[in-house]
Amino acid sequence: MRVIICGAGQVGYGIAERLSAEGNEITVIDNNPALVQRVRDTLDARGLHGHGSHPDVLAQAGARDADMLIAVTQVDEVNMTACQVAHSIFEVPTRIARIRSQSYLDPEWSNMFSRDHLPIDVIISPEVEVGELILQRMAYPGANEIVTFEDDQVVVIEVNVTEDCAVIDTPLRHLTDLFPNLQATVMGVRRDGEMRVIHSHEQMIAGDQAVVAVARDQVQRVLGLFGRDEVPPSRVVIAGAGNVGRYVARRIEETDPTVSIRIIESNRENAQRTAEAMKHSIVVFGDALAEDIMREVDVRDAHMFLGLTNDDKTNILSSVIASEMGCRANIALVNQSQYPRVARRLGVDAFINPRAITVSKVLRHVRRGRIRGVYTLGNGAAEILEAEALETSTLVGKPLREFKLPPGIRIGAIVRGSQSIMPTGDTIVRAGDFVIVFALAASLRQVEQMFRVSIDFF
Fold this sequence. Notes:
The chain is an alpha/beta fold. It is built from 14 helices and 22 strands.
């Protein structure tokens, strides 16, 4: 597949890194020569210096033969113009744009992005994606990660395995006997920083982070087995009144007005605007790293602290301060992938990586064939995929025990209509089933063979 990526920042580079590693022909455009040089030096991709919305630059990038354009620069208007030029002049079949300004995304103006006006096939809003993921984390505070799919029948959670966990040191095959009717499958673990598949004869150990596919109505039960059955927070403190912080606060106000929300914002004008826009939330002007400000918002009595400023270090340190002052749980917004390894030891409970979320969202639309959902784990070390089984798939029509799965792949669940099925060796996949798959990065090509999709699946 020939893909043009406009923007070589963290998101653009991350997308290029993934797609080029999978054998796609990638050209990255950016007006920052240093970022272009980084692409040339470190990726199997072409780097081009220029503005991605300029027709001559797109022509030089090979837009006439491109299959897709992904516009993820820092400027919404550049992204939208790049998609318009790609459609009107070069007839690029698929156009994806990152749009951050919420005013563009107001339902009142939705017709603006129709094919007759601004022809953008997929709009990615990092603030909305991040905000919704935070709300899911708040609904299940015991989970480190939570992945949902379109049908919403099965979710995948990542949860800590501790010494007092009820399922520790037990072969996975015995869990069904110990917990009848448990609708869950442990697919993999993050152990010593490495993602790995875990099979039915193996067991989890203390310190693991388990990746579990579970029926939606049994998430709380599974979290309880891991000793992580925690009630959703009713008192929340948010550091940062940027796009993400305001979105989360507004959505909480809409869904549960009984939740107490206090927002810390270090910019006076932004604090004032946020205070005027919120219905029930209390906004405090100040620094989230100052203990007197933390005391003013009663962080010691808060159930959850959300570090959502634009600075990773502030988010991490303010989360640590909140924890030390008595807050029960915290989540930090972190863009740099190397920070969580250190920050976990400092007492940060969970992290949200906007770059990883945006890259996952883009990959969901880049991947072809019968893939309906994709989510990356461990900074690309593994993926959770939801794939439709075709008539021609080798999985279809025989018990799973007769199909030798590659070592880096494990099936976690099967969605059949309104039914969620946790697979066993006797389970038979039918054509039309959606299969939840955990796959290590090195095994992604083999997923293609399993589902017998076209050669341009990746």
